[in-house]
Specification:
Length: 308
């Protein structure tokens, strides 16, 4: 009985390259579909944005008029004089230069102090386990619920007793502590997103707690630190009530209180264009800072919502 061997042909030709499959892009149907009620929210947000831009443009237009033109012309008429001299008058004669310098000194110093102590306080609450850590964090968060009208009388009496009433140092200390609860709350949530293996690897290499914090953890806190820095600076820059109660002399007043004084003077002297020019000088730095760093604010505030 014979057996036949069947030779199978071998594929000696060139091999075809493997086919690369591309990832399918999400189709339009995979995204959130447009609902009819979405149009209401779009119109509402558009109306809010338009009103804000229109008010900003109106203030710019009025700040370039003369007092006679502002009083005699219709409120929404375009300026014909283009008086840029109003800004120089507001800066020099109106005292905005002094108020601006005081606001920069108070806002920047209070922001640096508040952010520094917030980061130091948030690190053990977020990364070190000790009895009562949750209670300590809750006490800090309770500070967000205390209304300002409850605190200004004790603050006034305390600053008066220690000799810091009507001083920029007293206002700086108030602003620095005023932002502590929110800053600690944000930084605790942000630090909890960092992996614990960072401290473990540093401990294996022989690094102590201080070296681990300043050399490893602190460089990774950029988005969180940036967000609380910007928000604290904007709060300190725009704060009015504490500056009105705790500051008496004109030489120590900040911009919000100085603008209030200019508005009182404009009521009796009808020098409205100088007031609107001072408003623009006050608002423009805040708008520039927020426009340039708004992405940092979103990154820092949303990081703690992912984990922790």
């Amino acid at each position: 009985m014979s057996t036949e061997t069947i030779a199978r042909p071998t594929d000696s030709g060139p091999k075809r390259p493997p086919i690369r499959r591309r990832h399918r892009r999400p189709a339009v149907s995979d995204r959130a579909r447009f609902r009819p009620f979405h149009l209401f929210f779009y119109l509402l947000m558009g109306a809010g944005a338009f009103s804000a831009v229109a008010a900003f443009a109106w203030v710019i237009n009025v700040s370039l008029k003369t007092n006679v033109e502002f009083i005699t012309s219709p409120p929404f008429s375009l300026t014909r004089s283009w008086e840029f001299e109003n800004y120089r008058q507001a800066w020099n004669a109106g005292g905005v230069a002094m108020f601006f310098g005081n606001s920069v000194l108070v806002a920047v110093t209070a922001t640096v102090l508040g952010v520094f102590f917030s980061v130091l306080a948030a690190y053990p609450l977020a990364r070190v386990r000790f009895p009562g850590s949750g209670i300590v964090l809750s006490v800090f968060i309770l500070g967000l619920m205390v209304p300002w009208m409850v605190t200004f009388i004790p603050l006034y009496l305390t600053l008066r007793d220690i000799g810091l009433l009507d001083t920029q140092l007293g206002l700086i200390l108030v602003y620095a502590t005023y932002n502590l609860p929110f800053n600690i709350f944000v930084m605790v949530g942000f630090m909890r997103t960092l992996p614990v293996q960072l401290e473990e690897a540093a401990a294996i290499d022989g690094a102590g707690p201080a070296r681990t914090f300043f050399g490893i953890i602190l460089p990774l806190l950029g988005p969180g630190v940036a967000s609380i820095t910007i928000i604290s600076f904007l709060n300190n820059w725009n704060e009015f009530f504490y500056a009105l109660v705790l500051i008496r002399t004109k030489e120590n007043m900040t911009l919000p209180v100085g603008l209030w004084q200019l508005s009182q003077a404009a009521t009796y002297s009808s020098n409205w264009v100088t007031l609107f020019a001072a408003i623009m000088i006050t608002v423009v730095p805040v708008l520039v800072v927020f426009a340039l760093l708004q992405r940092r604010i979103a990154e820092g505030l949303t990081a703690g919502a992912i984990k922790g």
